[in-house]
Amino acid sequence: MRHFDHLTDEDRKRLFHLEPQDFTLDDERDVLAVALGATLYTPADHPELAARVLRCVRAGVRSMVLDLEDAVIDDHLAAALCNSVAALDQLAAAGGVNAMIFVRVRTIGCIAEIARLLGAGRTVLAGFVVPKFTADNGASFLTATQAASELLGRRLYCMPVLESMQLVHRQTRGDELARLGRLFDRHRDQILALRVGATDMSAIFGIRRDRDLTIYDVRVVADVIADVVNYLGRMDGSGFLLTAPVWEYFADRERMFRPALRSTPFVEHDAVRFRDQLVSRDIDGLLREISLDNANGLHGKTVIHPSHVAPVHALAVVTHEEYQDATDIIAADCGGVRSSGYGNKMNEARPHRHWARRILQRAGAFGVTNEGVTFVDVLTAVAPR
């Protein structure tokens, strides 16, 4: 698997100083976690599920979730589970798939049933996404994932979704986070990443954010995200990669506020018409939220529409400037401060070391741009028109 391998050789040469590296399901956990990027959810009861997965992968998706939970009505659960197993078997029979494929389960029993029914699809399945994961129910899901791994004879990961009422309510949040931290530490090798479920958090308060706002404008949810990062996203060896919550919008309608996407970068790269297309598809709000995700310690993103994948991946590419700063910081073993090679900031070796390590991990997964190439160039190359 490799990000951006759906681009032409000419485009990759034009865009990348260092191209993204290949990865497989056998790579280290940290490598795979960073490589998740935009994780596209799709209903597990889709009538042509395997074909849909392959179409999305050809368009650049590198992680997908077959959703048995909110995307499937109760009466269709059994049929959707069988449909997801059949799709995994079909993908394996077709020679595999160039992406990490997960199933979002509804119950603990779903994990055992999928493992029991899978044939050749065991080589395609990367693991399970567990919604409404709590300190009380989580151990059982992790145990079931481990049992499925043993039955299928291969490593399966768990991605808990942090969205429970115990986590959201301020009175119980600290205790819940502490208990989750201890549970995750005991099962560290099983957990690929922790997913933040902001839609369910908002629902507790009867809130649904407008497309002109980001999740960070919804303070009760932003406060939870900040605490989750504080407890579970630390870079001291105790934390995990945290993925950013979903952006819900992709249809046109009249805007209440002026679009937030700056014109200047698009004017400079002769892409003004492309900017207008992004605004009309509500991608400007998504781009703003992705920037805030990164600033707040979240990586990748849950997405529900294929058009959202390209913006997430374009902003995941490491710029030439970021890469130069990161390599300079890592090379400074004895600490100290030095001017950036771009002459526009100071790089402090010790305070910025964790940042630099994360940048180099991202560079491996998503590549490094050529000098002078920006996210506008990358997005123009990969976004559907």
TrEMBL record:
Pfam families given in the database record: C-C_Bond_Lyase
Gene Ontology molecular functions: lyase activity
Key words, A-Z: Lyase, Magnesium, Metal-binding
The UniProt record lists the keyword Magnesium: yes
Protein origin, superkingdom: Bacteria
SUPFAM superfamilies: Phosphoenolpyruvate/pyruvate domain (SSF51621)
Cofactor section: Mg(2+)
Protein name per Swiss-Prot or TrEMBL: HpcH/HpaI aldolase/citrate lyase family protein
